[in-house]
Sequence to fold (581 residues):
Amino acid sequence: MVLEITREIESALTPNALRVLEKRYLRRDRNGRITETPEQMFRRVARFVAQAEKQYRPEVEVDTIADEFYRAMASLEFLPNSPTLLNAGTETGQLSSCFVLPVPDSLEETFDAVKYTAMIHKSGGGIGFNVSHIRPTGSAVGEHFDAAGGPVALIHVFAGAADYIRQGGVRRGCNSVVMSVSHPDILHFINAKSNPSLLTNFYNSVSVTDDFMDKVRSGDDYCLIDPNTGRAVGSLNASAVFKRIVDQAWSTGDPGLVFIDRINRDNPTPSLGRLETITGCGEQALLPYESCNLGSINLAAMLKEKGGTLSIDFNKLARLIPIAVRFLDNVIDVNKFPVPVIERTTRLTRKIGLGVMGFADMLIQLGVSYNSTKAITMAEEIMEFISERAKEASYNLALERGVFPAWSGSIYEKRGLPMRNASCTTIAPTGTISIIAGVSSGIEPIFAAVFVRNILDGENLLEINPYFERIARERGFYSRELIEQLVTSNHLHSRKEVPEDVRKIFVTAHRVSPEWHVRIQAAFQRHIDNAVSKTVNFPKSASREDIARVFMMAWEWGLKGITVYRDRSRQSQPLCINEIG
Ligand code: UDP
Fold:
């Protein structure tokens, strides 16, 4: 179908963005015919989210606020997470990406969680589970000895439910499962995905304490604790378990690590309990039944030109951040939560996750290589600015609307700082919204200058990085032959016709060393309340020691979690290129 698009966004949306919008996001009638344009989609979302203003400021013109929200989205400078774009103003009405469900050691409550899983997935959200409270395999159940199926068997129950539900027919739910390293079934959990065709869309992570990591270094043993009794039931050698984790991560990319003490040092509401797990793609630690809605600022659109030189437009950012924070806070009020307990829990802390996308595209425009100290400095400078301004916006909303209900007892009460949201910032993967914005995802380096993106049930889309195309044409090395060869082999770094400075700027994910991936992730993490979704890429030739070193480094540098991916260690990759050098 030919879409009618207004001039305003016509030039901004790439053909791939239009394809994704058409296929997934735009409303359809009963016969499956698309009934809205991208402009109407942004209007629908803006109007719906702006309605929340009425309950705080009856005198305010909702349309004026809706216009602000519309402009932020239609300019592709800020986009909320997919469920907000998909469901705002529709019957589904569920607007958040991230949920955490408790999995207690009770059959009844566990099967409640299975039901909630189905409901959350249907609405487009991803879920985090912590299975550490489930009694170990073979424990007694009632009067039956050796009857418990154990946590890994339970993950398969959730996976069965998840497979059955396709998210509103548009995407599958991402699930993150965390198990404490001290659970007696930990070795079984570490191997749970040794067959990569099992538990697809379940990302497993081992939750490790600082004490465990210290023991990995010293080679000491640590205790296994039965969650049912709280008693030590055995011990394992920490470095041997760490090695098992590394072995599995090397061969399949799974499990990752979650640094649980680090996460809890940032827990804004310790009086409500410890944070035990992270959500879908690792970006958000939440309490049981909490949810969080995300939104990302497009950094590639936050530049200004003066005298032929580009620089970060901090004034533009400063104008956009309060709009984005207001938008995300409003979402909590107009959201239709899947179940009442999630609504109550989410509204207690009102966590939101403002982050960024297009970081790599911004660096390219500025002529800065991703793997450079300049990139680290810029990451820190931008994220510190966004974080401070987001907090200021949340403070102003607290003065206007009141503090979040669980503020008493929070870290903010101790500081005497009114806040509307218990946390403000998160780096999401932005897997789809970055395609809509036409920029590199989250804080990841570009995948390739030219590649075939494998999305939407096997459909392939050719993507040429727009900045690469422009530079190649301007500097006279653009040719059809070059593009064709880059599609089949990602060897930009060895193309002699491409000037060296261009090759350096267009450094791709596989050419960035794992250490640099971690350094960039750590630079962002220093200024993020929640966590940072990021994959640390390794070449196929990487050794197990390389992975072990990066896991250690991630802990030492204060990451909240780490996921690694060694090239071609999984059967299906979201992005495909033929050969990686
Ligand atoms: N998510 C999901 N299924 C998907 C993609 C994402 O459940 O296919 C959830 C998951 O919890 C993830 C979160 O959405 O952590 C945000 O992912 P992303 O930023 O990639 O989503 P987008 O808003 O770009 O669609």
Summary: The CA atoms of residues 269 and 410 lie 4 Å apart. The chain is about 40% helix and 15% strand. Residues 81-82, 97-98, 125-126, 171-174, 279-281, 283, 428-433 surround uridine-5'-diphosphate (CB under 6 Å).
